[in-house]
Amino acid sequence: MIPNKGKSEEGKVRKLLKVEPLPDGSGHFFNLSVQNKVLNIDESIYIPVTKAEYTVLTSAFNYILPYLLGWHAYANSIKPDDSSRGNNASPRYGGDHEWNR
């Protein structure tokens, strides 16, 4: 989404999020920059994040991303066959298992 799209102020606000590894390898560095040419503002926020915190954030984003994109609705609409679930081992289908003897 472009801020102020279609207006004279379009493109004058820039938001940038950078994630870079720390020099000592102990974690990552989050840098959020906002440039607003309309209000003449240039601000940055720097947040150091440990490896453990980064792992938690990555896991949370991996979980929530399909919901944010709406993929969960598509995945929930696909129902696999009930016949393909569970253990339907049958000797006539080559399912000769120890527990069927």
UniProtKB/TrEMBL annotation:
Keywords: DNA-binding, Transit peptide. Residues 78-101 are annotated as: Disordered. InterPro entries: ssDNA-bd_transcriptional_reg (IPR009044), Whirly (IPR013742). One of its GO terms (molecular function) is single-stranded DNA binding. GO terms for biological process: defense response; regulation of DNA-templated transcription. Belongs to the Whirly family. This is SINGLE-STRANDED DNA-BINDING PROTEIN WHY1 CHLOROPLASTIC. It comes from Salix purpurea (Purple osier willow).
